[in-house]
Specification:
It comes from Ceratopteris richardii. GO terms for molecular function: rRNA binding; structural constituent of ribosome. The chain is 34% helix and 35% strand. By secondary structure, it is of the alpha+beta class. The longest helix is centred in the middle third of the chain and has 19 residues, at 49-67. The protein is elongated. 23% of the residues are buried.
Amino acid sequence: MEKKTQIKIQALGKNIRVSVSKMRRIIDRIRNTSYEESLVLLEFMPYRASYLVSQLVVSAAANASTNLGLNKSNLFISEAWANNSTYLRRFRPQAQGRGYPIKKPICEVTIKLS
């Protein structure tokens, strides 16, 4: 009995200036969909971060076609996740010369195509 090996290719997005909960809302919707279907879903989502995710999906498909010679129509998103990264720290002036820290979240997104 022959085993078919699945080839997985990935694209990694670092330092994306969106909170993880907002990014997971988008990624959960496109997980386990085909390449074309995910691009259509991302194009019509009303979120700012959907454009960033669509760029990652296109980048992963370009990696698959350039490096391995795979056809883009046969690809689907097998894994996708978003993790916390560091915070972008800013300070806001407060009363009596104090500074109040503002933490702006940053996330990392990984998309794997099979």
